């Protein structure tokens, strides 16, 4: 079974995301055949990890602007650069007011949904896993709020498998909290929740790519425990 664990940089400035990804990658590779839990997990699942989703924005944030958020695509007929990739996904609800049409804004959603090569690549890869393999779970990791969110973000409606998704998500919250006793809040990623997160984090933590997550409506397997 395929488990896509997508720990990544979407906003260029969220440097902790790829560091967390690389730490997890090191843990899994070095733990195989040494740690019984890791060995059992990897014997059951293929894990696909995207450490960096926005390489150009990530590089630019290191070398030019530490708070840079978007990619570095030159917008046509414009002096401004970049699209906020988190708002560029489209499950039929692109441009519904979460992002902005101002190309100079840090929250620019792009001229159309999936206009960017980065979001197209992620979309195509997920669709391939979904159509050719048994994609079991999909995660994105962002900084910096202590929230565990799940779809549907655009409407606040529950996914068909909401009781199971919520149950397994709570297992993840409990496991995460047990490491350093950092408290996380589990909730559906409603528009209200996302606006509160944006207000609290100045737009940092909530480019959640729920538009991709919502396409993966497979029941979460008991084996994820």
Please list the strands of the largest sheet in the order they lie side by side. Answer: 2-1-3
- Unreliable parts: 198-225
Span from first to last CA?
15 Å
Radius of gyration: 17 Å
Note the beta-strand portion: 5-15%
CATH superfamily: Zn peptidases
Count of separate DSSP helical elements: 7
CATH fold annotation: Aminopeptidase
One letter per element, helices H and strands E, the order comes to EHHEHHEEHEHH
Give a count of the beta strands, DSSP E runs of length 2 or more: 5
Describe this structure in words.
The strands form two sheets. The chain has a three-stranded parallel sheet with strand order 2-1-3. It has one domain: Aminopeptidase (3-Layer(aba) Sandwich). The protein is 37% helix and 11% strand. Strand 4, helix 5 and strand 5 form a beta-alpha-beta unit. The protein is α/β, with parallel strands linked by helices. The chain has seven helices and five strands. It is globular and about 55 Å long.
């Amino acid at each position: 079974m395929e488990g896509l664990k997508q720990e990544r940089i979407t906003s260029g400035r969220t440097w902790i995301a790829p560091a967390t990804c690389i730490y997890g990658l090191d843990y899994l590779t070095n733990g195989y055949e040494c740690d019984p839990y890791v060995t059992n997990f990897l014997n059951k699942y293929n894990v696909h990890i995207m450490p960096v989703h926005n390489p150009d924005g990530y590089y630019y944030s290191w070398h030019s602007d530490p708070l840079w958020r978007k990619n570095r695509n030159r917008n046509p007929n414009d002096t401004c650069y970049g699209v906020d990739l988190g708002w560029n996904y489209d499950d039929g609800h692109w441009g519904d007011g979460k992002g902005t049409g101002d190309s100079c804004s840090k929250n620019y959603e792009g001229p159309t949904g999936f206009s960017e090569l980065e979001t197209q690549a992620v979309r195509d890869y997920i669709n391939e896993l979904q159509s050719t393999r048994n994609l079991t779970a999909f995660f994105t990791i962002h900084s910096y709020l202590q929230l565990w969110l799940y779809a549907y973000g655009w409407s606040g409606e529950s996914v068909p498998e909401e009781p199971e998704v919520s149950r397994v998500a709570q297992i993840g919250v409990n496991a995460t909290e047990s490491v350093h006793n950092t408290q996380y809040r589990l909730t559906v990623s409603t528009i209200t929740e996302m606006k509160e997160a944006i207000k609290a984090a100045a737009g940092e933590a909530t480019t959640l790519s729920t538009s991709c997550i919502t396409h993966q409506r497979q029941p979460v397997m008991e084996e994820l425990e």
